[in-house]
Design a protein that fits this description.
The protein has 368 residues and is α/β, with parallel strands linked by helices. The protein is built from eleven helices and 17 strands.
């Protein structure tokens, strides 16, 4: 069944290859509780409605499986939208263009929750989005839950934080040591909505245009205390530097941390370290549980490597997975549809075609 396939993907991942579904999930959404921020595994919080069956064929070739959707497979109309922010919802000037603003308002007026799913921390950029939308600036959400910091912070539709996941202190200290040994800048996203660093420099200044909290210097000693008893928690840590340096560093970081953490990338010159099992996909499952929906009810939209789990999860369950025209090749391969770039109204295009017009449903009806 589709349910069993989805659960196998979430529990550890299988490779999937098909002309219609060409991607290779390799993620795990089982979160390891850290500090006192214990939260149920996303697997345990899957909406009950996910337990269904449908016509789906699965054949295995070693570690690979082939997904074959029956021609009569029913496609759901979009009941929720999960969208990345930088490179997707916002243009290259970090603004919300008029076309996207209009489509967002139309989708929200239709009663469809629009949920931001981003690697960014809560910060001034949220206020700017709310102002563009004509919404109360004190809100952290549009009209649905929001997923921040790669799924490590999830807020309900009222903007209250209901789920946090953090790195443990031994991992924090290893990451600090790696950055110091290699002379690479490093920041940490903390549980009090700050971004901190041992010291600030030209590389940490790269975060300023994104309107996140301004990085603050706290010294190496305080950085080493993050995640320890009685200290602030670290949602994620991020190496910052020249792209060629980070490419060489990535393998070293992955080898040093093993299963203690997940290494991912959202934008150039930034390499992120997350708690084990963490991803936007995990955060999206938490948000879906609040909405009483399943991945197949959603339109998922993104542009980066860190959007991969989210799009794969939605597509496997029959939802609409859309990559931006400016997206990385790996994400475009995982998506069912590719739209224009973020500077060419790609987000507005996706919202119009799939959330409002239901193009994917019409195509399925024509095939059936």
């Amino acid at each position: 069944t589709k349910t069993l396939l989805l659960l196998s993907l979430l529990a550890g991942g299988v490779g999937i290859a098909a002309s219609d579904v060409a991607f290779a999930p390799s993620f795990s959404l089982a979160l390891r509780p850290t500090l006192d921020m214990r939260a149920p595994s996303p697997l345990s919080s899957l909406p009950h409605s996910l337990a269904h069956t449908s016509r789906l064929g699965v054949s295995r070739r070693g570690a690979c499986a082939t997904l074959m959707m029956g021609s009569g497979q029913e496609r759901n109309r979009v009941k929720a939208v999960f969208t990345d922010v930088d490179g997707t919802l916002l243009n290259s000037k970090h603004g919300l263009d008029d076309a996207t603003t209009l489509m967002l308002k139309k989708v929200m007026d239709k009663g469809i929750p629009v949920c931001m799913a981003t690697g960014k921390a809560r910060g001034p950029w949220v206020r700017q989005v709310m102002e563009s939308m004509g919404l109360p600036e004190e809100s952290w959400t549009l009209n649905g839950p929001s997923v921040f910091i790669q799924g490590l912070l999830v807020c309900n539709p009222e903007g209250k934080a209901i789920h946090r996941t953090v790195l443990d202190n031994p991992t924090v200290r290893k990451v600090n040591a790696l950055a110091a040994d290699r002379g690479v800048s490093l920041v940490s996203y903390t549980t009090d909505d700050r971004i901190v660093a041992a010291q600030i420099d030209e590389w940490t200044d790269l975060l300023l245009p994104y309107s996140e909290p301004t990085p603050q210097p706290i010294g190496r000693r305080e950085m080493d205390l993050l995640g320890s008893e009685g200290a602030l928690g670290a949602h994620k840590m991020m190496f910052m530097g020249p792209e060629e340096v980070l490419r060489g560093l990535r393998g070293e970081v992955e080898a040093a941390l093993g299963d203690e953490a997940v290494v991912t990338k959202a934008v150039e010159r930034m390499l992120e370290v997350l708690p084990p099992g963490a991803s936007k996909g995990a955060g999206v499952l938490q948000a879906l549980d609040m909405l009483g929906l399943r991945p197949g009810d959603c339109l998922a939209l993104g542009d980066g490597e860190n959007d991969l789990e989210m799009l794969e999860m939605v597509r496997v369950d029959g939802g609409v997975a859309v990559a931006m025209g400016n997206g990385v090749p790996k994400l475009k391969s995982a998506a069912e549809f590719v739209v224009a770039t973020n500077d060419e109204g790609g987000a507005a295009e996706a919202l119009q075609r799939f959330a409002l017009d239901g193009e994917h449903v019409r195509v399925q009806e024509a095939v059936s």
